[in-house]
Amino acid sequence: MVQDARSLGYGDLIERPRLKAIGLGGAGCNTISGFPFPSVGLCSHIDNINGPPNQRRIVLNTDERALLRSASPRMLGSVERNITKRLRQELDDNDLIFLFAGLGGETGSYIAPGIASLCRHLGAMVISSVALPFSAEGTGRRNTAIAALPELIKSSHITITYPNDGLLKVAPNLPFRRTFRVMDELMKTPSIELSQVLTIDDLSRLRKDIGTSSHMRMGTGSGIGMQREAVAVSEAFSSPWFDFDLSDTKIALIIISGCEIDEFSVRDVIGHVRARLPRTMIQYGVLSNPSAYDLRVTILLSTKY
Ligand SMILES: Nc1nc2c(ncn2[C@@H]2O[C@H](COP(=O)(O)OP(=O)(O)OP(=O)(O)O)[C@@H](O)[C@H]2O)c(=O)[nH]1
Ligand SMILES: [Mg+2]
């Protein structure tokens, strides 16, 4: 236990949550590809043809997408149609659900708030991770994303946004397709790490700390050698998505992973974060990875939307 910060992964109810990843639309299905725990994609028939092979998917027709666009969980929770029955079966009996989508298209943007509401209505904690379109994709996609986002944030417990333009700052010369694969990996990281750390007890504490909902941004860094903690934290804070006033940040979730992480390392990382966020509630988890040669730090910071 580090002073001034709360550790994740402990508590009276230390069993792991039952969890699932849901990919919405073409981008969401690509992002959940190869996820290390149960997952299902929801998409149109076109994205089903082009999507990754060997993935469990529910293909939605136009009427079903229109129905799911209604964000009323009570309605989705009680409508007796094949699609709503199937979704309730898929989403029920989970403690933690990770939703993924690229906002800006019709399927993901339109159904994400309703699916998040339904998961919440069924009792799960919902963590949504969404990419926001590149400026180069035009105002139509941008406006669709902007219209969907407030409702999604309200419906999820945590919504992590990744404006695609941020990637151009860290990897300016990648071809478009490659950019999306990099984004998929980045968006997956906090969810996979949280899934390995959070306990049932953490979920209920987090839900209390967050209140109804929270918008977050992600930064990640790694370091080797004597100064590995300082280097990793500094790299994480140079994230293109930490483009807001850090004094707004109420909650920071930190995952520290690597080989042989001892209490000194943890204190060092938290100290470097604390120096940048003097008034923020810090919660951290540690993941041991014997095959890692570096120390990695993933940081989620809450910010206004
Ligand atoms: N991370 C990631 N983002 C993607 C990918 N493909 C597209 N995007 C982004 O996500 C946005 C939405 O695209 P899609 O997911 O294809 O849209 P959709 O939800 O399937 O909606 P429709 O295709 O219109 O039914 C795009 O504007 C891109 O910014 C991908 O493979 N990975
Ligand atoms: Mg699509």
List the helices and strands and how they pair.
Elements lengths: L4 E3 L11 E6 H7 L7 E5 L1 H6 L6 E3 L2 H8 L3 H6 L3 H10 L4 E7 L3 H16 L3 E8 L6 H17 L2 E6 L1 H6 L5 H22 L2 H11 L3 E10 L4 H10 L13 E8 L4 H14 L4 E8 L6 E8 L3
Parallel strand pairs: 1-10, 2-3, 2-5, 3-4, 5-6, 6-7, 7-8, 9-10
Antiparallel strand pairs: 8-11, 9-11
Helix pairs in contact: 1-6, 3-6, 6-7, 11-12
Q: Mind explaining what this structure looks like?
A:
The chain is α/β, with parallel strands linked by helices and 305 residues long. It folds into two domains: 19-197, 3-Layer(aba) Sandwich (Rossmann fold), CATH 3.40.50.1440; 214-302, 2-Layer Sandwich (60s Ribosomal Protein L30, Chain: A), CATH 3.30.1330. 44% of the residues lie in helices and 24% in strands. The protein has twelve helices and eleven strands. The protein has helices at 25-31, 45-50, 62-69, 73-78, 82-91, 106-121, 139-155, 165-170, 176-197, 200-210, 228-237, 263-276, and strands spanning 5-7, 19-24, 39-43, 57-59, 96-102, 125-132, 158-163, 214-223, 251-258, 281-288, 295-302. The protein has an eleven-stranded mixed β-sheet with strand order 1-10-9-11-8-7-6-5-2-3-4, sandwiched between helices. Helix 6 runs parallel beside helix 7 (139-155). It is globular, with a radius of gyration of 19 Å. The two termini are 32 Å apart. The model has no long low-confidence stretch (mean pLDDT 93). It binds guanosine-5'-triphosphate and magnesium ion (MG).
Q: Key terms for this structure?
A:
single chain, 305 residues, alpha/beta, Rossmann fold, 60s Ribosomal Protein L30, Chain: A, 2 domains, eleven-stranded mixed β-sheet, 12 helices, 44% helix, 24% strand, globular, binds guanosine-5'-triphosphate, binds magnesium ion
